[in-house]
Specification:
The structure holds 2 protein chains of 2 kinds. Chain A is α+β, with helices and mostly antiparallel strands. Chain A is built from 4 helices and 20 strands. In chain A, strand 9 and strand 10 form a beta hairpin. In chain A, helix 3 packs antiparallel against helix 4. The longest helix of chain A is centred in the first third of the chain and has 29 residues. Chain A is globular, with a radius of gyration of 24 Å. The two termini of chain A are 28 Å apart. The radius of gyration of chain B is 24 Å and the shape is globular. The chains are: A alpha+beta, B alpha+beta. Chains A and B meet through strand 4, strand 11 and strand 14 of A and strand 6 of B.
Chain lengths: 446, 261
């Protein structure tokens, strides 16, 4: 059965590659003099890259009140995933087209919790990203597609981006899920650009409750500095309006400094509120009708040493995150929900709902103050790239250590290992979901 | 007989006049040619034409580098205009799809799998021993002031002009350059690159086996640059330039909004 899936997925990708390449080759053979030029143009504009990834992950789910006996989040203990990631691009005159179909085969195994002993497998074929772009003039570009649209210089979090909470930096070997965007880009000169961006669909994103978002983004790039401002409006009950900003500066040959910020009217984040409900607290977006301005800002810098290695520092202030009182109430509510989780009564349903709200409370970072220190050293012994990232929650002293190692075996093969270690206990910003995670994998590209 | 003598005398006169006239014309031509190239600025400008001259340029570069015994090979397609360039890595497979965008001193790097461009500092080396200034087109006449000029140079048995150049802006890759330009071909054949403190840190030699059409004239164009580290003599970077197109590169090429495509 499993071999059948591998066979089908491989066949799909190989067929796709062969079809596209054969079409171009056949066209070449049958081309007459008139179409030779056209064909040469097509061949020049066509590119593809295929990556085959196989990786295994081991998780140690945290025994926390967020995930009673791992029954709520159902995190697997072991998983193996085979991914085929071909990227196709065609640039022809004023048109550009790209597509990133994906095929994924996954196995998972549970050794703890209520699913102990279970083994599952799944397969999926999907299009993660695609883009149609028309260049109307040298200065105007119109496009529609499914993209994981990211910008800004920061690693930890991109507060200036109204479309995605996660910027994908914490999962370097996994791809972000694309959403649908329509865009108009105007580049009046070398220093300036202006774009209108409409998020028209949720694409492959699992974000709940999609609402259309409109953004106007203006970018400036000068001799040693750049800056952007993004005004956005999200439809829906809350009508979220926000201003995003980011800027960077090449201070010296070795040092870059940068910042990102957002200012948002009102908040759609869920906060714990004491009430007379069976769990004594509820999760409510109490700030919804509040017209106060909530801000997030991030300041960072990277220094590159003579050896080529680099050190990055980032500080994040997240005003919408929980303060000490809110965090204390949050953990109390979670404890109450946890205790009621397995009771055979309607409270259990409420408990599950509450844990769901707690897990998806609209916050990328639970608390208000964080810093990150990242060290990158490439070409260690000529074959290793190493990244070490330490993220500290200043408010509750919990931390996350991420280590990434890439080993290049020849021109086409990369072996990689990734480790995540969370500290600070199970009632902390980093310790609620996983104690640790280890991943090893191999990638072959052609 | 007299007539014939007279005729012979006329012919002689005619020949002498023509000879003198030709000498004057040739001398005049020589003088005007020498005048056009006599100015060091002019010589530098002409030499720049064979290395891109700061105008829009698209070319493919094969870089082979040996640094500290480590061998590296990259092939990249480069689009450059003034202080902006976009390098797209074509080979080997492990670097295929990587891009390096340089907008003046702002630099971004992307590679497949990255969710967004990463800002990097100019110090970050991604091209072996080659610097931004080596892969982009050359505009020494515009970017440097001539601090010294000599006509007594020689390189590989060819007489050369020698220029001492000082960068006229902080954003130029090299602060000081000593540059050898062949007197015969008016092409740069050797360069020495110095740090701000005046220390020699790189030497480069150039070959010109490419030809391009510029203003309807065929012109020699740089085909190879060999850079040798002044301290670690075994650190050598060789760049082969091919598929050269001199053309206007649109501003959108250097716009970060289009970099992830």
């Amino acid at each position: 059965m499993i071999y059948r899936y591998i066979y089908i997925i491989s066949l799909f990708i190989v067929t796709l590659i062969i079809m596209v390449n054969t079409c171009i080759s056949l066209a070449g053979e049958n081309a007459n003099d008139v179409s030779n030029e056209l064909l040469s143009e097509l061949q020049d504009g066509y590119e593809f890259r295929v990556s085959v990834l196989l990786y295994a992950t081991m998780n140690e789910p945290a025994d926390s009140t967020q995930n009673p006996d791992n029954d709520f989040l159902k995190l697997n203990d072991y998983s193996e995933i085979l991914e085929l990631r071909p990227d196709f691009k065609l640039s022809f005159r004023d048109f550009f087209f790209s597509i990133k179909p994906r095929a994924e085969l996954s196995f998972e195994q549970f050794r703890t919790g209520t699913q102990k002993g279970e083994k599952n497998h799944d397969n999926e074929i999907f299009i993660n990203e695609y883009l149609f772009q028309y260049q109307a003039t040298d200065k105007w570009f119109l496009s529609f597609g499914r993209e994981f649209l990211q910008w800004g210089p920061s690693f930890l979090f991109s507060p200036s981006n109204p479309f995605f909470l996660d910027n994908g930096k914490s999962r370097p070997n996994q791809e972000g899920d694309g959403k649908e965007f329509a865009k108009v880009l105007w580049i009046p000169d070398i220093n300036w650009a202006c774009s209108i961006i409409v998020n028209t669909g949720n694409g492959r994103s699992s974000d709940a409750g999609f609402n259309k978002t409109y953004a106007l983004k203006t970018d400036y790039s000068g001799d040693s500095a750049y800056a952007s401002i993004i005004f956005s409006h999200q439809e829906g009950d809350n009508h979220i309006e926000r201003i995003g900003l980011f800027s960077g500066f090449t201070a010296t040959d070795a040092m870059i400094l940068y910042g990102e910020a957002s200012f948002k009217k009102g908040s759609d984040v869920l906060y714990p509120v004491a009430d007379n409900s069976p769990l004594n607290y509820s999760m409510n977006s109490v700030e919804q009708d509040d017209h106060s301005i909530y801000s997030s800002f991030l300041l960072g810098g990277t220094y590159t040493f003579e050896s080529g290695s680099s050190m990055t520092f980032e500080y994040l202030y997240n005003q919408m995150g929980y303060n000490d009182k809110e965090a204390s109430d949050y953990y109390k509510l979670r404890k109450n929900a946890h205790d009621a989780y397995n009771i055979q009564s309607p409270i259990a349903g409420l408990s599950r709902q509450t844990l769901g709200q707690r897990y998806d409370n609209g916050l990328m970072f639970l608390r208000q103050n964080y810093f990150m220190l990242q060290y990158i050293k490439d070409d260690v012994f000529d074959i290793f790239d190493i990244t070490l990232r330490w993220t500290q929650c200043i408010d509750d002293k919990s931390a996350q250590l991420v280590s990434l190692v890439d080993f290049f075996a020849g021109d086409n093969t990369r072996l990689f290992a990734q480790g995540i270690l969370n500290t600070g206990g199970h009632e902390s910003a980093f310790g609620s979901i996983l104690d640790y995670q280890a991943m090893i994998g191999i990638e072959y590209v052609f | 007989m007299f007539k014939q003598n007279l005729k012979t005398g006329d012919n002689m006169k005619y020949i002498i006049i023509m000879l003198l006239f030709s000498i004057v014309i040739i001398s005049g031509l020589n003088i005007s040619y020498a005048e056009t190239i006599k100015t060091p600025d002019e010589i530098l400008k002409i030499a720049d034409l064979s290395r891109g001259s700061g105008t829009g340029l698209e070319w493919t570069i094969k870089i082979k580098s040996i640094e500290g015994g480590k061998k590296q090979k990259n092939t990249l397609k480069l689009k450059a205009s003034n202080f902006n360039s976009l390098a797209e890595f074509l080979a080997p497979a492990k670097v295929k799809g990587r891009k390096l965008l340089m907008r003046d001193r702002n630099m971004w790097f992307v590679k497949p799998g990255l969710s967004k461009p990463v800002p990097i500092s100019p110090r970050q080396k991604l091209l072996g021993g080659a610097s931004n200034g080596d892969i982009a087109s050359t505009n020494y006449a515009g970017d440097y002031n001539i601090t010294n000029f000599s006509e007594d140079g020689n390189f590989n048995n060819q007489p050369c002009f020698i220029f001492d150049l000082k960068a006229n802006s902080k954003k130029i890759t090299y602060d000081k350059i000593r540059y050898w330009i062949s007197k015969d071909k008016l092409i740069g054949v050797k360069a020495e690159f110095f740090t701000i403190s005046g220390k020699l840190f790189k030497t480069a030699t150039f070959e010109y086996n490419n030809k391009i059409k510029l203003n309807n004239e065929s012109r020699l164009f740089v085909s190879k640059m060999i850079i040798t580290n002044a301290v670690f003599k075994n650190d050598i970077t060789t760049m082969h330039y091919s598929k050269i197109k001199i053309k206007k590169i649109p501003n959108s090429t250097f716009n970060i909004n289009l970099l992830m495509q």
